[in-house]
UniProtKB/TrEMBL annotation, chain A:
<dbReference type="InterPro" id="IPR004045">
    <property type="entry name" value="Glutathione_S-Trfase_N"/>
</dbReference>
<dbReference type="InterPro" id="IPR036249">
    <property type="entry name" value="Thioredoxin-like_sf"/>
</dbReference>
<keyword id="KW-0808">Transferase</keyword>
<comment type="similarity">
    <text>Belongs to the GST superfamily.</text>
</comment>
<dbReference type="GO" id="GO:0005737">
    <property type="term" value="C:cytoplasm"/>
</dbReference>
<feature type="domain" description="GST C-terminal">
    <location>
        <begin position="87"/>
        <end position="211"/>
    </location>
</feature>
<protein>
    <recommendedName>
        <fullName>glutathione transferase</fullName>
        <ecNumber>2.5.1.18</ecNumber>
    </recommendedName>
</protein>
<dbReference type="InterPro" id="IPR045073">
    <property type="entry name" value="Omega/Tau-like"/>
</dbReference>
<dbReference type="GO" id="GO:0004364">
    <property type="term" value="F:glutathione transferase activity"/>
</dbReference>
TrEMBL record, chain B:
<dbReference type="InterPro" id="IPR010987">
    <property type="entry name" value="Glutathione-S-Trfase_C-like"/>
</dbReference>
<dbReference type="Pfam" id="PF02798">
    <property type="entry name" value="GST_N"/>
</dbReference>
<dbReference type="GO" id="GO:0006749">
    <property type="term" value="P:glutathione metabolic process"/>
</dbReference>
<dbReference type="InterPro" id="IPR045073">
    <property type="entry name" value="Omega/Tau-like"/>
</dbReference>
<dbReference type="GO" id="GO:0009407">
    <property type="term" value="P:toxin catabolic process"/>
</dbReference>
<dbReference type="GO" id="GO:0004364">
    <property type="term" value="F:glutathione transferase activity"/>
</dbReference>
<dbReference type="Pfam" id="PF13410">
    <property type="entry name" value="GST_C_2"/>
</dbReference>
<dbReference type="GO" id="GO:0005829">
    <property type="term" value="C:cytosol"/>
</dbReference>
<feature type="domain" description="GST C-terminal">
    <location>
        <begin position="89"/>
        <end position="216"/>
    </location>
</feature>
Length: 226, 232
C-alpha cells in the first residue's frame, strides 16, 4: 500500500525545514510542493483553511498543519529513530523548550533585535540574551538538546544554527557571542554539520537577500511612523 | 501515596489552571492546590517556573511542569492507566492538537481582545472575531465529535478541555457587554456541548460561577486601571 506523503512548504521557512529534517531522519519518502505565499495554491487553501499557512503535511490525503503538531504526528506514525523521549517528564520538557523556542527565542531575536536599531535594539538584546541564557543552561552536560543524538528540541531550535549567522551579517550585530554562550555556539556548529541537516539548509545568498529586504522594510516602516 | 507528591500552583479564576485541574480530575488524582494571590508570586512559583513565572505549574515528585496544555498531555501520559485524555489515533491526536493550538494562538486572544477593546467599533470588531472563531470551531466539533457529545467523543478529552476552560470568562464577557457570543442558532453543536461540558463530573467543581467571576473581573480591571505601567 503506497502511503502518499506530501509536504507543502516554502524554500526558506524554518518551520517547514523542521519537517524536512524529521522526514529525512526517519527515512520517509515524500513529495515536496513549493508554495508562493503571495499566490497560494488552491490545494493549500483547501488543506489549511484556518490559517492558510505552510508547512502542511498531507498523509494519504489527510492534511496536518502547525509544525509541532506535524512533528508529533510524524513521530507517532513512523516509530523508527524517535524524536521525542519515552519518559513522560522528559517529553513534557521537550515540548516546553520547543514552545519556548518559538514563543520567546525566535520572537525576541527576529522581531526584536533583528528588525530594530539603536536604543530599541539594545533593549531588545537584553530580552534576547535572557532567552538564550535559558538555552545555554539547558545544554549543560549534553551534546544535543536531545542528549547524545538529535531530538525534538534540536529540530525545534535548529533554525538558530543557520539563521543566527545570517541575521548577524545583515544587522551587523553579534547575537550569539561564543564567549557568552560557549555551549550554544558549540551546539550550533554540531547541529549545522550533522548528517542530513547539513545537506538541507536553504541557499545562503538568497537568505541574506531576503532578510536584508525584511530588515530594510521594517526599519523604513518604523521611521515613517515616527 | 502521599498527597503532597503532587502539587498544583494556580488560582481559581484562571482558565489555564482549570485545564490542569480537569485533567487531574479525569484521572482521579489527589493533589495539593496552592492558590497564588493576585498581584504577587510565591517563592515556590518563581523557583518552579523561572522562565515564565506563571501559573499553572504542576509539581510531581518535586519536578515542575509548566504550560497548561503541556501539563494536560503530561497528566495523560504519566497516568496512562486512567481514562485517556488525548485520542488514541495519531491523526485524531493531530487534529485535537491543531485546534487546541488555534484556540490558544487565535481564538483566546480575540476573547481577551474584547475585554481590552476601547469604544464601540473596537468592541464590535472583537466580538465579530470571537464569533467567526466559533463558526470554525463548530465545524471542528462536527468532525471531531462524530455525532457524540464531546470533541473527545463519549467522554471529555483534550480539545474539550482546551476550549471549555474559557466558558466561564465567555459568560462574563457576554454579561458585561450584554451580548450573546455563543449563539445556539448559529453554532448549535457548540451551544449544546457547552452545557454538557460544564455539567461534567471532572469540570463542575472547578468551573467558577459566573457571578463570582464577574466580581473578580471588575476587581481585576480596576486594579489594572489603577496600577502603574508594569516593569519588565
Amino acid at each position: 500500500m503506497a502511503e502518499e506523503v506530501k509536504l507543502f512548504r516554502t524554500w526558506s521557512s524554518p518551520f517547514a525545514l523542521r519537517i524536512v529534517w524529521a522526514l529525512k531522519i526517519k527515512g520517509i519518502e515524500y513529495e515536496t510542493i513549493f508554495e508562493d505565499l503571495s499566490d497560494k495554491s488552491p490545494s493549500l487553501l483547501q488543506y489549511n483553511p484556518a490559517h492558510k499557512k505552510i508547512p502542511v503535511l498531507v498523509h494519504s490525503g489527510k492534511p496536518i498543519a502547525e509544525s509541532y503538531v506535524i512533528l508529533e504526528y510524524i513521530d507517532e506514525t513512523w516509530k523508527e529513530t524517535p524524536l521525542l523521549p519515552e519518559d513522560p517528564y522528559e517529553r513534557a520538557m521537550a515540548r516546553f523548550w520547543a514552545k519556548f523556542g518559538d514563543d520567546k527565542v525566535l520572537t525576541s531575536i527576529v522581531w526584536g533585535v533583528f528588525i530594530k536599531e539603536g536604543k530599541e535594539q539594545e533593549e531588545a538584546m537584553v530580552e534576547a540574551m535572557k532567552n538564550l541564557w535559558f538555552l545555554e543552561e539547558e545544554l549543560r552536560g549534553k551534546k544535543f538538546f536531545g542528549g547524545e543524538r538529535i531530538g525534538f528540541v534540536d529540530l525545534a531550535l535548529g533554525w538558530l544554527a543557520n539563521l543566527i549567522n545570517i541575521l548577524e551579517d545583515v544587522a551587523g550585530q553579534k547575537i550569539v557571542d561564543e564567549d557568552k554562550f560557549p555551549l550554544l555556539s558549540a551546539w550550533m556548529k554540531d547541529f549545522a554539520n550533522s548528517p542530513i541537516i547539513k545537506d538541507n539548509w536553504p541557499p545562503r545568498v538568497q537568505m541574506i537577500a531576503k532578510f536584508r529586504a525584511l530588515r530594510d522594510a521594517k526599519l523604513a516602516a518604523a521611521a515613517s511612523s515616527k | 501515596m502521599a498527597e503532597s507528591e503532587i502539587k498544583l500552583l494556580g488560582a481559581w479564576p484562571s482558565p489555564f489552571v482549570m485545564r490542569a485541574r480537569i485533567a487531574l480530575n479525569i484521572k482521579s488524582i489527589d493533589y495539593e492546590f496552592h492558590q497564588e494571590k493576585l498581584g504577587s508570586k510565591s517563592q515556590l512559583l518563581l523557583e518552579s517556573n523561572p522562565v515564565y513565572k506563571k501559573i499553572p505549574v504542576l509539581i510531581h515528585d518535586q519536578k515542575p511542569i509548566c504550560e497548561s496544555l503541556i501539563i494536560v498531555q503530561y497528566v495523560d501520559e504519566a497516568w496512562s492507566s486512567g481514562p485517556s485524555i488525548l485520542p488514541s489515533d495519531p491523526y485524531d491526536r493531530a487534529i485535537a492538537r491543531f485546534w487546541a493550538a488555534y484556540i490558544d494562538d487565535k481564538w483566546f486572544p480575540s476573547l481577551s481582545g474584547l475585554a481590552k477593546a476601547q469604544g464601540e467599533e473596537a468592541k464590535k470588531a472583537a466580538m465579530d472575531q470571537v464569533r467567526e472563531g466559533f463558526l470554525l470551531l463548530e465545524e471542528a466539533f462536527g468532525k471531531c465529535s462524530k455525532g457524540k457529545d464531546f470533541f473527545g467523543g463519549d467522554r471529555i478529552g483534550y480539545l474539550d478541555i482546551a476550549l471549555g476552560c474559557f466558558l466561564g470568562w465567555l459568560r462574563v464577557s457576554e454579561k458585561m457587554n450584554g451580548v450573546k457570543l455563543l449563539d445556539a442558532a448559529k453554532t448549535p453543536g457548540l451551544a449544546g456541548w457547552a452545557d454538557k461540558f460544564c455539567g461534567d463530573d471532572a469540570v463542575k467543581d472547578v468551573m467558577p460561577e459566573t457571578d463570582k467571576l464577574t466580581e473578580f473581573a471588575k476587581i481585576l480591571f480596576q486594579a489594572k486601571a489603577n496600577a502603574p505601567p508594569p516593569a519588565n
